[in-house]
């Protein structure tokens, strides 16, 4: 086999809470990460030497700043693989949106190179390489539903959710994750996220209800600087999609759709008036 094509799924956060600042300047997080069907396609082929990135996107770097490049570089450093690799990124996930687009590409490269080149890397080596590339990369190695703590790298996989359709909307603006976290630190706010109760609801496979306290503590911060986030959330809530939240540091916003609203969700996506927004009806996996 001399080519491998691999799906790199995006994620949303069903809740996101910050419990403190760590010594390494990362924040101590607790959140539920949920993979969704929306994915990039990563195509890996061998080359004699070096790492070559190509993509259909003009929004991502193609040099050593690309997280997929970093992943390949780490694999080459930490295994006995001595040749090179071509990586094509067919970008479908909106960039800098809170959807872990770069992290999931990196995870796909780690898994893909390990398989295509028969590297036989142990699970803990794969996890370590993933974490060196970024906090969200370990989760992206195994799509599903997980409770993540630490930097987001300590993972407890949960029973899979019942499938939900997901309306995903991203306004045509980008945010810097770093800046949003800095602004959070300067803001005195006290959203209480009832983490234990929410985890119990998932474990008991209860229908997820926004009134149980699902929240993202970064949401007020991003909403302050990007008015589109609040505007989009208001439209979705006004249309009756109550379970509407921002994912990660934003600015993408999602609604979980219950079974009896799936047709309404299709119509909403079809008739979306804000024509600069990225909008898609996808689903949890
Ligand atoms: P997270 O949810 O992990 O904070 P995100 O979805 O907000 O991530 P990304 O799409 O990963 O953000 O993009 C963040 C930055 O990373 C962008 O500025 C982008 O240029 C850079 N980047 C590097 N490699 C990639 C990649 N393969 N795909 C997307 N962005 C990348």
Walk me through this protein's architecture:
Helices cover 32% and strands 28% of the residues. The strands form 2 sheets. Strands 1, 2, 3, 4, 5 and 6 form a 6-stranded mixed sheet that branches. The protein has a 4-stranded antiparallel sheet with strand order 8-9-7-10, covered by helices on one side. The protein is globular and about 55 Å long. Helix 2 runs antiparallel to helix 3. The chain is α+β, with helices and mostly antiparallel strands. The protein is built from 9 helices and 10 strands. The chain folds into 2 domains: 4-157, Ribosomal Protein S5, domain 2; 165-283, GHMP kinase, C-terminal domain (Alpha-Beta Plaits). It has helices at residues 67-78, 101-116, 123-133, 137-141, 177-186, 195-203, 219-225, 227-238, 262-270, and strands spanning 4-21, 27-47, 51-55, 84-90, 145-150, 154-157, 165-170, 244-246, 253-257, 278-283. The mean pLDDT is 94. Bound molecules: adenosine-5'-triphosphate. The site of adenosine-5'-triphosphate (ATP) has 21 residues, from helix 1 and helix 2. Adenosine-5'-triphosphate binds at residues 60-61, 65-68, 89, 95-103, 105, 136, 177, 248-249.
